[in-house]
Each structure stands twice: as C-alpha cells, then as structure tokens.
Amino acid sequence: MEQELPIIQIRNCLLVSIQTELHDRLALDLQASLMERVRTVNARGVILDVSAVEIIDSYITRILNDIGKSVGFMGAECYIVGIRPAVAMTLIEMGVELDSVRTALSLDLALERLELL
Amino acid sequence: MKTVDKEIGAILAGTISSITQRSIFNRLGGLATTPVHQLTPTDRATILQELENSIRLFARSNSAQLIAACAKALAAGPGSPMGAGTSAAPAPMAAPKKLPIEQEKDIATARLEAWSEAVRIGLTKFASVKVATAVSELARNIVFYAGKGSIELRSLKDDRGVVGLQIISSDQGPGIPPAKLEEIWAGTYKSQRGMGKGLVAVKKLVDDFHLDTRVGIGTTVTCVFRGER
Fold it and tell me: The pTM is what?
C-alpha cells in the first residue's frame, strides 16, 4: 500500500491538502519530499491544508510541528490552514502547541501572507 | 462490479471527506466490498442504519437527501422505511461497545465510533470532538506501546438525567514504570513516536481520569466525559 500525498506547486509555494489518515511512514515521506521540493524549487512557503482533518491529536500535532521545523530550517515558512473550530478548542484544552508552524484561516490568506496573491 | 463502497462513495463524494468515508466503510467491514446485488435485506438494513448515523453526524446539510439516495443505491425494497430515521433510533442507553485495537487503522475506527456514540447520547458537538480526540490518544498509546488492547465505550446517565460517556482503554502491554510516569505527569517525558503528551492531553480533556498501570501486566485508563445539565 504505497501511498504518497500529492504536492502542488503554486508559484514558489508548495501546497499539500491532507485528505487521508496520517501515519508514521506517510508523514516521514511527506516531510522528506517536501524538503526536497523546497530545495529544488526554491520555495518560499509550504502550506498544509488540514480542513478535511476532523480530529487532530497530539501525535498529528507533532507531525505538523516536525514538518514546520524541517521546512523552517531550510528557510521556508510553513503554514497550516483550515483548522476547524472544534479542533482548535480541543488543542487548547489539551495544552499542545502548534508552535513550529504558522496558521492561517484559509489558503487565500496564507498565500496573501506569503505575498503570493 | 458495483460494490457498496463504490456506490455509496459516489453519493457521499463532495459532502463527506474521504477520510471519514473510509472510516465509515471500515466500520461496515466485509459489507463495504460486497457487490450491491448480493446484499440480503438484513445487510441492507445494517448498512443503512450505519450510513444514516454517519451522514447525520458528518454531512453539513441535506442529510435526508443523502440518506434517501444511499437507500436507493442499495436498491432497498419499496416497503423499507426510507429516511424514516428516528423510528429506528436505538434505545438511549445501549450496551457497552468494546472495540479491539490492534493496528493503526483501528485508531481511526475507534475515534469515529466514539464520536458517533458521543453525538448519539447527546453530548455537544465540541464535546464530541474532544471525546474522539481522547479516544484517538488512548488508541494510539495502545498501538504504539502495547501492541494490542481494547477500548470500551459506555454511556452513562445519572439520577438527574445528566448523560456521560465512560471510556475504558485497557491493554496487557509492558505497563508504565513509576519513574517514567513521573516524567509524563511532569511534562518532561519525550517518547520516540508521540510527543509523550498523549496521557497528559487525555487527562486535561476529560472530567474524570483514572490510570492503573502495572509493569509487566498492563495499563488501564478509565475516564468519563460528562454532558451539560
């Protein structure tokens, strides 16, 4: 069951829409291919759209933070967009931080902040 | 061949995310991949009941039309109670549900099961997301650290009519040694795969939390979510 998340390029920004259950293998593959693409296309930003993700627990949070950190080390900014209200409230209550990524309400706003619109 | 998941997937596309669809089909087990024309009336009823619960839970609008479309796709006979919904609603205090947790895909199933149970007993939308998140953490702990175990969901009702949901996660895994447990509660423990924060997160999300862990014997976490008065 080889699976890979498609990475879409919009100008010098990379976009991944997470539509599937993230697990270790998939997350590591995503992290690796994002880093590779950031390098080859000289990306300014990486945007992860999680609007289809109904539950974010501490494990998924760690994956998102790890991706944000690794992308950040390469000089690109990582945005998480589309976190659902109930998910945000739950993250606050759990006391877990999404501190290695930036967040934006929507893809448009993230692109705007990355000065691509 | 027209299988149940393909037929229903086509109807739900665009309304229910593919992650959720997959969880719904996982819950149907072998029925999901059964060709529609081979379904027995009992199969159809089971599938429809399951779909109805899930659609009401996840579709933001037009759930009635979706349910009707699913019923039609499954070629339910003319006499079937299409979209009648409420008439088939289960009794409020159902028997406890015990979900085996053995592999990563069971985490998603447990999460969805807990979510729909929370909604069914009348917890708010936000509370139900918290329930699902807590179950996700507990199920992950089982898969990551114990290999296998189970999660049991029990609906509760006190004498003032306040509903609640009890979650019992148990495994016969290695248990957590006292020193490690201290680190976990102090927030200094970092595991390899998780953030070492799963248990802390669960404790913060729930109203009652009880942990019983014995090295070499296993771990049981019992927690309760209470609804509002």
Answer: 0.73
